[in-house]
Design goal:
By secondary structure, the protein is of the alpha/beta class. The chain has ten helices and 18 strands.
């Protein structure tokens, strides 16, 4: 999904350049002790023992489940760096949640450096720091196996040769290096033995067949199967998922490349995406969970009929996927309900409006049968950050909770994997104006209007402010 770029803000795809003072000092010591000197081949800062277990891994459950719940993805800037007190505050904030949130980290990009700049020479320093943060917050770690070192895709080899341009990062490994990428995936799994969930690649980046104007689903599936086999060799209990396709949709009036079956007032699914999914699903070696990605709006950024009702697409797509994959848990690795501007910034809505539409989107995914979803955290370094989960840890008073995290954490706690949802009564005149999700203990009600209403839900009448998200006990 090109619109969301590589990280938060206009330059999402660039990596963090500076470490915190304390972390920098430790990294310097470790570099002197363990890294190789530069012998002219660009190996400075790298080690040969990439598969050496890092730190003190958290102890995973004896039988980890393939679905993990509702969490978020770390992007370029996260809470692992900044003012010491703010970082600690963020750690305590997340660790203190009743149900720790699952957290995704990519192996290259989104705050992580090139993991293997030279074949057989590794640098996991930034990835290590992110994993340490996830461990400190008691979160369930999820690793997305993307992207690939330059030498795997026609670029230069060397610790100082990494091309961080978006075009370079969005290039898939050459077929001749698929096995090398699978071996890198195995190295990552050995280094972080507490990670039980791996996603293979991100959004089919680099897997577009220009000649045939369709996705190169054969190439992706070949890569996926090699990675799947290598990870299972490391530990049979590791769980692997894909294909992480962007479930694009077009205007409901469009016919070219538009599905005639998967459609609604929100639009029509791009048939080329559905074809790619079906090929992977039929030809995959195996999968422990299924991963998709997408927005509620069309490829032209249309929210049809409006921003709230457009989320019905997430329900329709979830049901379509579940019909094809049976009992496999469904994850939304990314989901978007607010179009970005030319810089991919999303700050036109008030925070209350944003939280309300996000809550409605989560409700739509759950109704469709999804059991896990990850919010793409648009974190930046400034005091103002639309949609962020916490106040930036680069600030002295950072690391405190923001409205989006409060809602996401509550949703994760109230509706964990395995939740059996129940129908609740909603007054006829309220049906168009509220989104509702309930189990036997909790009812989530979202006011889709920018005005106060008097709603009657589950036999109870109450007043709701504009865009209010309300939690009822049963």
């Amino acid at each position: 999904m090109g619109r969301h770029g590589w990280n938060s803000g206009a330059l999402r795809w660039r990596l963090t350049a500076l470490l915190g003072v304390g972390v920098a000092a430790l990294a310097l010591i470790l570099t002197v002790i363990t890294t190789l000197p530069d012998d002219g081949s660009g190996t400075k800062g790298t080690t040969r023992d990439g598969d050496k277990v890092h730190g003190t891994p958290a102890v995973p459950p004896d039988q980890a489940k393939p679905d993990v719940g509702w969490g978020f993805t770390h992007t370029q800037y996260s809470a692992d760096e900044g003012e010491t007190a703010s970082v600690e505050r963020a750690e305590e904030l997340l660790a203190g949640k009743p149900s720790p949130l699952p957290q995704i980290q990519h192996i290259m990009g989104w705050g992580a450096g090139n993991p293997e700049p030279v074949k057989g020479r590794y640098d996991f320093s930034e990835m290590d720091r992110r994993m340490d943060f996830i461990r400190a917050t008691d979160g369930t770690p999820v690793v997305t196996l993307c992207c690939s070192p330059d030498w795997m895709k026609g670029g230069e080899s060397g610790a100082d040769k990494t091309n961080w341009s978006q075009a370079a990062l969005e290039t898939a490994p050459d077929r001749a290096h698929y096995k090398d990428f699978a071996k890198l995936a195995a190295t990552v799994a050995k280094r972080y033995p507490d990670v039980r969930h791996f996603i293979v690649w991100n959004e089919f980046k680099g897997f577009w067949n220009n000649e045939q104007a369709r996705w190169d689903y054969e190439g992706y599936t070949e890569l996926y199967n090699l990675v799947y086999k290598e990870l299972k060799k490391v530990n049979k209990d590791i769980m692997v998922g894909g294909p992480y396709l962007v479930m694009d949709s077009v205007d409901p009036r469009q016919t070219e490349n538009a599905s005639t079956k998967v459609k609604g007032a929100w639009g029509r699914m791009d048939q080329r995406v559905l074809d790619a999914f079906d090929y992977w699903n039929k030809n995959k070696t195996g999968a422990d969970f299924v991963v998709v990605d997408g927005s509620s709006y069309t490829t032209d950024d249309e929210m049809l009929p409006d921003e709230f009702k457009a989320t019905q697409k997430l329900t329709a797509v979830s049901k379509w996927v579940r019909e094809r994959t049976g009992d496999l848990p469904l994850w939304w690795a990314e989901y978007y309900v607010e179009p970005g501007d030319s810089n991919d910034d999303r700050d036109d809505w008030s925070e209350a409006h944003r939280v309300a539409v996000q809550a409605t989107g989560l409700t739509a995914m759950a109704r469709g049968g999804a059991s896990s979803g990850f919010y793409w955290n648009p974190q930046n370094k400034g005091a103002s950050c639309a949609g962020c989960l916490w106040r930036s840890t680069r600030l002295g008073d950072g690391g405190t909770e923001l409205p989006m995290l409060k809602m996401l954490a509550r949703f994760n706690d109230a509706f964990p994997p395995g939740t059996e949802y129940e129908k609740v009564s909603v007054a006829a005149d309220d049906v168009p104006n509220v989104a509702v999700l309930a189990d036997d203990k909790t009812v989530l009600v979202v006011n889709n209007l920018d005005r106060t209403i008097s709603a009657k839900v589950d036999g109870e009448r109450f007043e709701m402010k504009g865009y209010e998200v309300k939690w009822l006990k049963r």
